[in-house]
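Quick board copy: two proteins, each given as sequence then tokens.
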Amino acid sequence: KLSVSHGWNSNDVYVAKAGGDPTSPDFKPLAVGENNHFYVTEFNGFFYIMTDHEAPKYKIMRVSCDTPDLSNKSKWEEFIPEQESTLDDFRIIGGKAVLGYQVKACSRLELMDLVSGDRQEIPLPTLGTVTAITGEEDQPEMHYSFESYAVPDSIYRLNIQTGSQEKVDGLKVDVDLSGITTEQVTYNSKD
């Protein structure tokens, strides 16, 4: 795939089949000339497209890689609709979708089965921010970086199949943080 950015406002995406002539790939337009963002992942014969097209908080669309005119959005199906929270990360790890949302300035991670659509929340250490997610589409091991007021930047390993996770690395600080708790409180504004 080839993504052409137009500043912070939008990007165009072109795709080519793997295995073709690497010196002159046959790129086909997937999303071109629109004032939106398109982030594309290919998995098991489908393109999964994270986009803000008609969804300011982002959604996931899906289209078969064999669709003749990939840029025809009437051929795309809404796979994960726009939610109340902003979707800011989508990855396929261990054959499942990993969804990263921003909820009231904090991160929430979810795992979703690509066939059944069943979802489960990935428990995070406390309220805070996931700053990176890595993993392979065919391997069950995922790593994510997490930080908060009570947890210095740390890396966690999660097994997608079993749900077990552990801290594997992080900043070392000479302060006992065990007595610090993080709580989120909401108040109504006068305006």
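And the next:
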Amino acid sequence: NEKSEKAILANETSALAEKLKSFKGISLFQVDLEKIQRTIESERWVKSVEIYREWPSRLKIVIETYDISLLFWQSDKKIYPILENNKILEPLDVTRAPDRAVTVEKKIFSEAKIREKAIRLLKSLPSKGSFSSSKVSEVGYNSKEGFWTDLLNRDLRVKLGSENFEMKSVRVTQVLDYIENKQIEARVIDA
């Protein structure tokens, strides 16, 4: 998965490498490490950066990136990765998209506050189990009912509203486990 994330950020890392070329050839004693750090930290996809001098003539730069939380599916050819910090990357070709929940809702894509709630919703889901983030195929939103999710390999929609996602996800997990154990068919769960 780390490999695919690096491939997704290939354009961004190339652009950053271009910005950092101006520091090449400067002595380790004279190079402005704070300026390099500010340059790197200004990138929307950079979570943190550490810079080390490696004597006699190199810098080691370690960059931690924000995770991709959600994908906005604009068309058959373009998908926009949405990072956990609520920033949007340049569009990707569909074939390069990582395995994440998607949304086709323009409101989630265009309104930062709604997008932030969608990210919070996905983060609130359990890491394992019947209602984990890996089981969610799509996230949607409408102003009347709030957020909903569709689950992978199931014709089932889960309505989650607009708040208390953690509490609701625990309840939904219990309901999903129950209906699976009892082999009950359900189409909608309203949390």
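Board note added afterward: The chain has six helices and ten strands.
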